[in-house]
Design brief:
The protein is mostly helical. The chain contains 11 helices and 2 strands, in the order H-H-H-H-E-E-H-H-H-H-H-H-H. A two-stranded antiparallel ribbon has the order 1-2. Helix 5 runs parallel beside helix 8 (about 180-200) and helix 9 (about 205-215) packs parallel to helix 11. The radius of gyration is 21 Å and the shape is globular. It starts with a helix and ends with a helix.
Length: about 270
Amino acid sequence: MALLVVVGLYLALAIAYGIANPLFEAPDEHSHYFTVQYVAETGRLPAVTEPPDRWLGQEAAQPPLYYLLGALLVYPVDTSGARASVWVNPFVRLGNAEAPGNINFFVHGPEEAWPWRGYVLATHLLRTFSAVLGAGTLLFIYGSGRLLWPEHPHRALPAAALTAFLPQFLFVHSAVTNDTVIILLSAAALWQLLRLWQGTVTRRRLLLLGLTVGLAILSKSAGLLLLPFTAGVLLWRAHRRGDSIWSASLHFAFFVLAPALAVGGWLLWRNW
């Protein structure tokens, strides 16, 4: 019950952050949003062009999982005319703490008010999606705490609550950003590694971990870092327990590395 209260309060605060913050004022939020809209409207992934599309920015080259999921969410919403409706503030003084005004990157008009329609509705749906992904992260953090302190399960709740109410965690998970997916999948991978470290290594568990890492690679390039980290944990576990390092290496290669590359490797080839 206490965990449900923490997650419920977190969701309320994250959604409130999303309502209070004007559209696209979170870092790179407009690029993340318009990349989602591009996928929803065209049914294909964006490509880096010369000159680059100023609405997509660097997100055109980002791994696509967040944008694919977001496109499924906003596909029913009519977002036509969004680019013409979003005005960049030509006098913005972004990043200047001494500036008395013009701190918004965009001009905000009455179309952003309730009831939400069009691209405004789509943006708030994506912000809520980010908040839900953050709730999943909290559950994995709580689960990791239960594994770390099996004799003191009450310690897991403060671990989740500490994360839930960090202002920056709330801010990130109230915005349209692909960071929310890689955070969730990294938390899931760490929880799975803890289970493997403390329990039995089975092919099924290794395969599930490989699929998680593959999805992380499809979420953000940093997901690739989970591969050497996972290899290190599994090999160190084998060494500490006196198991065969060669056998552990083969299990990692066949049941973690291969599935991860099967899920995310095509993106590396596409980008190359």
